[in-house]
Amino acid sequence: MSDQIQFIVEKLNQEPFRKNYNLITFDSLESTQLLQLLNDVLGEIDPKHAVDIREELPEQTAKRMLSLLGILKYKPPGSISDLSAFRQGLVTGSKPVIHPVLHWLLQRTNELKKRAYLARFLVKLEVPAEFLQDDTVADINKQYEELMEAFKNLHKECEQLKTSGLSTAEIRRDITAMEEEKDQLIKRVERLKKRVETVQNHQRMLEIARQLRLEKEREESLAQQKQEQKNQLFHAEQRLQRAQLQLKEMHHAVVDSKPESLMKKLEEEINFNSYLVTEKIPRELETKKNSTYFLQKVVVEPAMSQSDLSVLETKINEVNAQINQLIEKRMMKYEPIDSKFSMYRQQASIISRKKEAKAEELQAAKEEMSSTERQMLQKTSQARELEGSEVLRGDEFKHYVNKLRSKNTFYKKKRLEIAEITAEYGILQRTEELLKQRHEAIQQQLQAIEDKKGISGYSDTQEELERVSAVKSEMDEMKGRTLDNMSEMVKKLNAVVAEKKASLAPVIKELRQLRQKCQELTQECDEKKIQYDSCAAGLESNRSTLEQEVKGLLEECVQEESNYRYVNCMKRNLEIQLQRAKEEMKAYVSPDPQERRKAVREQYTRMILEQENLGKKLREKQKVVRESHGPNMKQMKMWQDFEQLMECKRECFLKQQNQTAIGQVIQEGGKDRLVL
């Protein structure tokens, strides 16, 4: 606290305050003097607040200071959590309230001056929505917002120019260079003037050249205006096409729909827009404001090093861990396991998330539809601009659409057939792979059984038999002598094969039993799957029914809430009217003449009497004007005749003077002839 007071005293003793305080004199200031000192500091930041607090009420002073501190974004310290206590301390001039404010203001005076200057132009004036329904007020508000944006841009440019680093020496050098160029141009113009003066009719040529330059500038401006008008015409045609398209869609909607469907569609649109206005957009706006606030706070704070960031991250992790622990404790304490509210809360949160997702999908679909409509209009305009292109209309377009639909159905049918064939091909390919794997497994099992029974190589022998049979056929053709030997070998091999088959018969029988069991299990699995699908469909239908009920209840709640607000407003209006009627009756019945004069009836009576007196005076004035109208018109006619008479006399006098002058000239000419 002592360091804070010492800092305040040092700043107050410097420019522009120059108070010459020390710690003792500053600490001995009374509450009024302390408030005046705070007001002087605020007046230095914003000159509008440079007033004497003795000339205004304490409540007005506190309100004015609080408004400025709010604009400057001052937050009371942690020891003063109650705003009413802070306001009371500001009214009474309490030192624990004033000293932190002074310390905060004197720390960042230049920054706060800039903020107060910007607040005069950037603090938006909130206009009620009912006033914005007026076109004039809406236009003025729009101009006000545009001027505010223009001021923001100009201020940013000014700040950029201030921080651009241009020195005064460079500016002076640029000014001297431009002055030298100006002198050179003046000398050059003088030399050209001297050259032109020797040419005949140079003034006329200069005038023609100036007119030519003006005409060229006018031609450029006209070309620019022509281009602007072409752009405006193009935009107007696009707006007309959009309006015609909307009109056609509305005609189709009106022809194909009923009043009930239209009302239902309007109710759905109103519900969606009300959800956007009341829930979605305010939530997004709040998040944007919070993020903007945090970003501004980060921008205002000084630059942070990596060590500061690591310290902040550790603090954030600790706080998150504490929050999680508190949440777990609260859940263990206040939310038992068998509570049904958790399920309802979960369902409500799921429904709200689904609602938000569907609203976002609908918004995206609307934006996509609008972009598609714009693209369609652009393509239509391009098609009209192309030579020889025709835009289908009416029956031709319907025939074209029907043709496309038939082709689309044929395409979908063929595509479905291709998909079925592809699926069948995949199944067959998979069956082939399974058969190959099964064949390999059987071969391995057969080889293992052969090894176990001591007859390994039977399959190889069979393959060898096939090979030998092929060789035998060839050898029979070539040499018939080896036929008997090969027949005996075949008999032996057949006997061996029969023995192997007899030994493998039990294994094949067991394999058949396993296959039958596999089929039974597969059938049972299919039945269980059918039961699961039916149960899932029933649960899904129950869920959709519950969602519809919840939606109906929410709509009913919103309707009842709107009815309640409407009835409450009507009640308030009736109470106000009743109160005004009571006050009027009280003032009318009151014996006090001053109170009677305040009554509306008395006021209107006085106004009626005043208007009657004014009408009487105006009628008297009208009567006087009517009586004097005839003489006045006669007098005006006499003055007009008199004016015409004087005009005739003046013309006669001028003619006489001209004739006299001509006669004198003729006489003088005759005298000169006689002298000659």
Walk me through this protein's architecture.
Among the domains are: 123 residues, Orthogonal Bundle (Actin-binding Protein, T-fimbrin, domain 1), CATH 1.10.418; 95 residues. Helices cover 86% and strands 0% of the residues. Helix 15 packs across helix 16.
The SSE string, one letter per element, is HHHHHHHHHHHHHHHHHHH
Give the C-alpha Rg.
Answer: 52 Å
Strand-residue proportion: under 5%
Q: How many E strands?
A: 0
Categorize the overall geometry. Answer: extended
Could you report the average pLDDT, rounded to the nearest whole number?
78
What ranges have pLDDT less than 50 throughout 5 or more consecutive residues? none
Helicity level, as a percent range? over 70%
**Class based on secondary structure composition and strand pairing:** mainly alpha
Examine the secondary-structure arrangement and name the CATH architecture of the domain at 1-123.
Orthogonal Bundle
The largest β sheet comes out as: none
N/C terminus separation: 122 Å
The number of helical runs is 19
Question: What is the fold named in CATH at topology level of the domain at 1-123?
Answer: Actin-binding Protein, T-fimbrin, domain 1
At the first level of CATH, what is the class of the domain at 1-123? Mainly Alpha
CATH homologous group name of the domain at 1-123: Intraflagellar transport protein 81, N-terminal domain
Protein name: Intraflagellar transport protein 81 homolog
Coiled coil: 137-246, 309-382, 504-584
GO molecular function: tubulin binding
Organism: Ardeotis kori
